[in-house]
Design a protein that fits this description.
Length: 361
């Protein structure tokens, strides 16, 4: 079996549940359909980059896809190493990992279909049902009433865990008041995760983090600059609340520093920034070797397979931005996702939406 052809296109769709203030209401993806010489098709996508970068991302996916035509799609390690070398060894960041991720995901989809197995079983098959939490629904732009009402709605929809954003308030009291509002709205039994998106310095993270202790936070995510490994370690040492991080780094090498310096307590790995399912699994096993849990970032319809394959998988981020690309996606029911049992990823692009939403690259 060989890779025979591929098709890519750029689509622009509304960004679900994201009321941004400055025109961030649309998101673009580069979709990939890769076909073998015996008629198997695997799918993947690149995206979650600024719109201005989409033409370059499309060109990167096309250019790297050309290099794998004629190769055996079962050899994901060989193909990945080949693409990283071709794209410039020592420079795995940015467009390179995003483009390689799309290809790697399509390869795993092909592999599952060829072997008649869902991807999570090929990766290890630790379990067929995973916890999930709502993300992308609770924003800094919400006033307190809106924050509370959206939190209550998510509880009524069956979510037992959810993440919301802090970091934009001028005072510590205002930050803590938002947290208090959320806790009062969802009750004591719902898990709350807080994402700061790197907006605090080390001292503010420690000060506010200590004030939050009584509210039972599951984790505090990216409290300061993602590559300040020592600063993150200082925060992690000072707080009882676990520190989550890792979504902003590219490739697998930075996770060595994050994990070995104990900069984080929960290892969060982004599918596209790390370079696909193959690389995601390497970080998950690295975390397991250091007795740390791993969680996903974005792309839940793909990463549900990866998290279900590892014993240290904690939870899947249920982020809806990529959902419109597909005819159906794994649904969150009572705070869990049942793994698809179809061969491959169990996903199918919505061809009508792709045709309707196609953009010039």
């Amino acid at each position: 079996m060989k890779i025979a052809s591929y098709t890519t296109q750029v689509v622009r769709i509304p960004r679900q549940h994201a009321p941004f203030a400055k025109g961030g209401d649309e998101i673009e993806f580069v979709t990939l359909q890769m076909r073998t010489d015996d008629g198997i098709e695997g799918i993947g996508y690149a995206g979650f980059a600024p719109l201005v970068m989409t033409p370059a991302l499309h060109a990167a996916v096309d250019g790297l896809c050309r290099l794998v035509v004629g190769m055996d799609p079962m050899n994901t390690e060989e193909i990945g190493a080949h693409l990283f070398r071709a794209a410039g060894s020592g420079s795995p960041a940015g467009l390179v990992t995003r483009a390689i991720s799309a290809i790697d995901v399509a390869l795993w989809d092909i592999k599952g279909k060829a072997l008649g197995q869902p991807v999570y079983k090929l990766l290890g098959g630790y379990r067929d049902r995973v916890p999930t939490y709502a993300s992308g629904y609770l924003w800094r732009s919400f006033d307190l009433d809106m924050l509370a009402s959206h939190g209550e709605r998510l509880v009524n929809e069956g979510f037992k865990a959810m993440k919301f954003r802090l970091g934009a308030e001028k005072t510590i009291a205002a930050e803590v008041n938002r947290l208090r509002t959320m806790r009062d709205a969802v009750g004591p039994d719902v898990e709350l995760m807080i994402d700061i998106n790197q907006l605090w310095d080390v001292n503010r993270a420690i000060t506010v983090g200590r004030e939050m202790r009584e509210y039972g936070i599951t984790w505090l995510e990216d409290p300061t600059t993602f590559d300040d490994f020592k600063g993150l370690a200082k925060i992690a040492d000072a707080l009882d609340t676990p520190i989550a991080g890792g979504e902003y780094v590219y490739g697998i090498a930075p996770f060595v520093q994050l994990i070995e310096q104990r900069s984080i307590d929960i290892v969060m790995v982004d599918l596209l920034r790390v370079g696909g399912i193959t690389q995601w699994m390497k970080v998950a096993h690295m975390a397991e070797a250091h007795n740390l849990p791993v969680v996903t970032h974005l792309a839940p319809e793909v990463l549900v397979h990866a998290l279900a394959a590892v014993p240290n998988g904690l939870t899947v981020e249920y982020m809806p931005w990529s959902f419109p690309l597909f005819k159906s996606i794994p649904l969150a029911v009572d705070g869990h996702i049942e793994l698809p049992q179809e061969p491959g990823l169990g996903l199918e692009f919505d061809e009508e939406l792709l045709a309707r939403s196609e953009r010039a690259s």
